[in-house]
Specification:
With 248 residues, the chain is mainly alpha-helical. 86% of the residues lie in helices and 0% in strands. The chain has one domain.
């Protein structure tokens, strides 16, 4: 039963890879407004999922060094992101221009594959805690993935891929989430109480993504009216996850 929930959730998240096609039909200004709201909403949803769902669930069931595992999650996500950012900059810088475009596409696909693998791990870990927590984590991942996949699609087009190839490779990379989810699920059958480590680890990942990637984007807005709109959507994101938690 749990495996079915995990696979369906990961499939839905993987299909988000096709959201990049929206860039072909929406005007840039409209797309910018949508992303503007989504990033704010996703930041709130990720933090709420971490603090209202994942961490309380882990503390209630396991206690112990839950916060240590959450901190490890933050550190690991920081290391992963730092490595790919460094490699991307240096690899692109030291190659000739006629290889530059394809290297950008390749590195983006590689990094996105790792990112989605970790997303799959997070979703599976959340479902191992409970089905409602898994659903909340899936919603948070989807909200984060939509602007991410639109950006990835743009990078692949810039990297020289056709629109069809960009969508295809983006989806293939998204499917690495299945590998991450299945790895966690089958490890949980062999290693007793592995969710005691993975659930707070997933919470740490959510906290890092929201605080290091999304919130800094919101701080770039200098227009007071737009900043207030961002705040409203940020609070909506928190309220949405809180509502799901309350229903539990």
């Amino acid at each position: 039963m749990i495996l079915a929930y995990i696979l369906i959730s990961v499939l839905i998240v993987s299909l988000v890879a096709f959201v990049g096609v929206l860039t072909l039909f929406l005007k840039p200004k409209i797309l910018e407004k949508i992303l503007f709201s989504l990033v704010s909403f996703a930041a709130g949803a990720l933090l709420a999922a971490a603090f209202l769902d994942l961490l309380p669930e882990a503390l209630e069931k396991n206690g112990g060094p839950v916060l240590v595992y959450a901190l490890v999650g933050v550190v690991v996500f920081y290391i992963i992101e730092t490595f790919f950012f460094w490699y991307h900059c240096h690899y692109g810088h030291h190659h000739h221009h006629h290889h530059h475009m394809s290297s950008i596409a390749f590195l983006n696909l590689f990094g996105d594959g790792v990112h989605n693998f970790v997303d799959g791990m997070i979703i599976a870990a959340a479902y191992l805690a409970s089905i409602p927590v898994g659903i909340a984590a899936t919603v948070a991942v989807i909200l984060h993935e939509i602007p991410q996949e639109i950006g990835d699609f743009g990078i692949l087009i810039y990297g020289g891929l056709s629109r069809k190839k960009a969508l295809f490779f983006n989806f293939i990379c998204a499917c690495t989430a299945f590998l991450g989810a299945l790895a966690v699920y089958f490890f949980s059958m062999r290693i007793e109480n592995i969710s005691a480590i993975l659930v707070p680890f997933a919470a740490g990942g959510f906290i890092y993504i929201a605080s290091a990637d999304l919130l800094p984007e919101l701080h770039k807005e200098r227009n007071l009216k737009k900043a207030l709109i961002q705040l409203i959507f940020f609070l909506f994101g928190i309220a949405a996850i809180y509502g799901m938690t309350f229903i539990e």
